[in-house]
Recover the amino acids of this structure.
């Protein structure tokens, strides 16, 4: 398949691509061009469906949500076999995406990994709500599948003590229905129940919706795994129906 | 200029657009299409130069770096006069961008503000380094022009105590040369000097470069305003010359 060693080396290219919240319009041109170069695309089924037109006719490696390691191992092996491979994540490739795992799986292999960033839910969800993350913020996943729950609780507490605005990823799943409530109770030990919060669901996809509410009310509001939760800091307020954390230009 | 009130209302549209780190290739298609619709583009000169081809022939509102309020007020007034206006920020429109200020300036006016997110430096810089922000992270600006220095110190301390990876924006300027050193000294009270850190300069632009180093060494390394600094958490390590925070899939 390869004429020379150098030629083979040129083929060992693996892209990890963040496709943003959903669909081609929210990808960068750089991401689109990289996908076009690839023979083989690996990703969670839902994400591949979002970019179906772009990857039509290409080999696809699909597995369900919980099979990340299998999928990424298969992608690595396809790259080692000489294919030009893309591993796609929704949102950004780095933030809760597959980039870290691909570096781990390719350690010691001669594969050139190029990470192509995408719009993460902290940014795409914030844009729907207004501008809740104008200043310093913390991104925290409430999933305890890969992070111990005590670590999550500790991070939420420190983020509240530091008066960070927060973007909370994976606020709930079918098995974890009370994580958001428990986290709100931690924040309520620091911040008042009137703190402005926001929920955004199906960001950038069909059915996109958002809701502004107080921290006290958020505590009793159900969320699902397609929702990103935003917690304001001490200066966040509602302006014309949107959630805004002022930067401070106007001395506010 | 307008036939009917309804027609005028349709004109009162203002986009706040994140153009990503630099140049059209790193913008989303949604951002490009919005710019095409606009009559008038407001932004810092350097950012408008990055997208010069896209906005050729359009009215431009440029002011220097420190004149954000003047520029955004002029953009609002152009929208009120019936123009379709875009205010552009580098990176994301929300994160340290102009979205928050535009909502403040347009409060009480009949202007429909649409925020179009872009790739923020936390994500674009992370992609250059490897995957330092795979898990929970905090974004903190070290500029004390709009945030009191004590607040910045408090946030850095809590981010370190929470074992967040960190993306530090605006680590220095001509007037502020010691902020990064002071912040490293705070983190060093919590994390060991061997903690993996990274610097990325001119992300996505000509002259892009990066450097991996330890926290102990970062303390004595100069940075400038075109650099974004990444601080690893307790699990961040170097894999094949890149900075990687494992997500935990492999039980690491």
């Amino acid at each position: 398949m390869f004429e020379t060693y150098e030629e083979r080396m040129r083929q060992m290219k693996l892209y990890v691509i963040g496709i943003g919240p959903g669909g081609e319009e929210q990808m960068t041109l750089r991401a689109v061009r990289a996908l076009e170069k690839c023979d083989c695309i690996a990703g969670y089924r839902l994400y591949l469906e979002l970019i179906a037109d772009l990857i039509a006719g290409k080999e696809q490696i699909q597995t369900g949500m919980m099979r990340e390691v299998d999928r990424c191992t298969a992608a690595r092996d396809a790259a080692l076999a000489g294919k030009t491979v893309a591993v796609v994540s929704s949102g950004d490739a780095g933030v809760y995406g597959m980039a870290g795992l691909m570096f781990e799986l390719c350690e010691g292999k001669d594969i050139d990994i190029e990470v192509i960033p995408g719009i993460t839910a902290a940014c795409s969800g914030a844009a729907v709500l207004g501008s809740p993350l104008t200043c310093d913020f913390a991104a925290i996943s409430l999933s305890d599948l890969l992070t111990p729950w005590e670590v999550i609780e500790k991070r939420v507490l420190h983020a509240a003590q530091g008066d960070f605005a927060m973007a909370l990823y994976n606020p709930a799943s079918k098995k974890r229905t009370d994580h958001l409530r428990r986290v709100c109770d931690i924040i309520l030990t620091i911040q008042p129940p009137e703190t402005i919060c926001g929920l955004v669901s199906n960001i950038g996809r069909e059915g996109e919706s958002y809701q502004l509410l107080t921290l006290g009310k958020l505590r009793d509001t159900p969320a699902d795994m397609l929702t990103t939760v935003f917690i304001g800091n001490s200066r966040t307020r509602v302006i014309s129906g949107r959630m805004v954390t002022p930067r401070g230009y106007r001395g506010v």
Q: What stands out?
A: The CA atoms of residues 119 and 225 of chain B lie 18 Å apart. Chain B has ten helices and 13 strands.
